[in-house]
Amino acid sequence: MTGKTDAVYIVLISIHGLIRGHDLELGRDADTGGQTKYVVDLAKALGQQDTVERVDLITRQINDDQVSRDYAQPSEALNGNARIIRIPAGPEGYIPKEELWDCLDIFTDNLLQWLSRQPRMPDVLHGHYADAGYVGMRLSHLTGIPLVFTGHSLGRDKRTQLLAMGLHSDILEQRYHISRRINAEEDVLATADLVITSTRNEIAEQYELYDYYHPERMVVIPPGTDLAQFHPADGDVHEVGFIQALRPFLTEPGKPIVLALSRPDERKNIVSLVKAYGETPELQALANLVIIAGNRDDIREMNEGAQAVLTEILLLADCYDLYGKLALPKHHTQDDVPDIYRLAAASKGVFVNPALTEPFGLTLLEAAACGAPLVATENGGPVDIIGNCHNGLLVDPLDTQAIADALLSILNDPCQWQTFSEHGLRNVRRYYSWRAHARRYLDKLQPLLKPQQPVVKSTPVRNALRYRSRAIFTDIDQSLLGNAEGLRQFVDTLRSQRKNVFFGIATGRRLDSALAILKKNGVPTPDVLITSLGTEIYYAPHIKTDTAWARHIDYHWNPKAIRRIMADIPGMSLQPASEQSRFKISYHYDSNLAPGVDDINTLLRQEDQAVNANQAFGQFFDIVPARASKGLALRYFARQWNIPLERILVAGGSGADEDMMHGNTLAVVVANRHREELSQLYEAERIYFAQQPHALGIVEAIGHYNFFNDDMGAV
């Protein structure tokens, strides 16, 4: 096996939820569940390996009086070589992951800035879930660092399950931003060098639904469980403190326990378990039902989803008269969890996971390690867990009768119960240890790792540029030109500040076309030209090309294959040769004949072409390499010349400019007839919508941001 032999530096990215190294608040809400524990345990396990120099688990910094101050600390040690790093992005407070999408470009910019201050760049980036996958993808495009992805759960499968429950597609978009998430997952899968899954079922049932499904890039590495914490009772289990929390609920507390432990989320499908229990008198006679569904003080103060689930459970308890048989305690700590499993096992009970789909099922391992047999959903990770451990039964989570029958078959057969319990104890230890996981993980990374090389720097082109501390970048056609008086004011402003500011152009035009139209309109030659939609970078005064950028974006670029694929699509015709370049293929788009843009992107994905494809003004369609865009090229420039993004003003007027306006740049959308293409940016941070058109709008933004003062900032 070939690869890097020195100690490895790994960056794990997991953005949402509440992440700390102790007392994890699992089940607090939909964002603080199994993934939180997984990434913390993974970081700790990797940090204990001799071949690992350093592990940084990157998450979002949270300053919020409603949560612990732990989540505001910039760093937290996990063990000798592993730590948590918290990066600010978006609002200071704790927000749901669905509200994080507009903050991810800021998170990316802040994280890249932090990484640039470290002694060296990481050897690998590993994004967890779609949001962190997006951040990892952007960083990989900018730096060339290999990307590893773990989805944990995927949007296409989630959408199918929620639609099956009767949720309308409009609600899915509003509540979960599901299309945005799925598109991000497609792009991440196109970029990822390795995809780590927990089970084979996860690959077959979730990843195969994606256009960028590459089985050769996927590997199954089951996570581990902490066997020092999760084990059978070693004393009188009835002396543990948590039993006192159950006794007020139960008339006959000595019965076997049917246990469910998850957050109160509709996808966890606890309601179906309560229905199965309530509809089966024989099951009620045999066992008590204990549901540990997060922590609460007042259901009315919980989020809408948790309220709905818990309210439905209470209504069903009343409907089926489950008083004295159903326990729904309000509070538990993470330290209580092993004892809760041990109570179920000692009572000769069963642990149930009835989730609509379960990406892995860490609670199943924990329960099995404590000796409890399992009944679990047939959708997702439990298929592999029970397949390996032979310690329970799989059921259709929407079939309440099947759930009841599976529970009865175990509870009514002491020999079967004992066999399942013993198999679970033995096989969890055999198949699911963190040490084995970390070793296999590092083994799979080896082919991706290359010796560290210094970041390529462009040759200085003019010493005077070194002293410029900020930059203005603008598109030509929809931003700079179109108002003669505005252009005159803008040029005068530039000339008065030439010693302090870079002037840059970011355009879809080729270099020759850009220079010609700028000269025709009396615009001074820019210091930097980003042309052909971010695929080429040139520096004045000699218009020197940045060859390092060209080498960087050439990664996996196959223009011949792209032209062959596009030739068969109706309504698409190549633009003249004057509009083509080495890294840009441009078409005329006839909306009356051509498929939708999403359909064309799907076709390109299915043909394994990882590209950036964009429609502009309803009639043009451009394809460039995945690592190229106006925004990526601008950030490359900023790193090369050490210009903070917060000191770069970018001006745009159409959808083609959106990529460079997200994140930490100061952005202005000038007023023009194509401005509606950027209307979705109205709520974004650091984006100003000018009242004036074209260059007048740029001048307006310079004043709005107080751009040439050191204490500049949005007003």
From TrEMBL:
Entry annotated with the keyword Transferase: yes
Residues in Sucrose phosphatase-like domain copies: 470-706
Family membership: Belongs to the glycosyltransferase 1 family.
Membrane-crossing residue ranges in chain numbering: none
GO molecular function, one term: hydrolase activity
Protein name (record): sucrose-phosphate synthase
Organism: Methylomonas rivi
Record key words, sorted: Glycosyltransferase, Hydrolase, Transferase
Glycosyl transferase family domain mapped to chain residues: 252-417
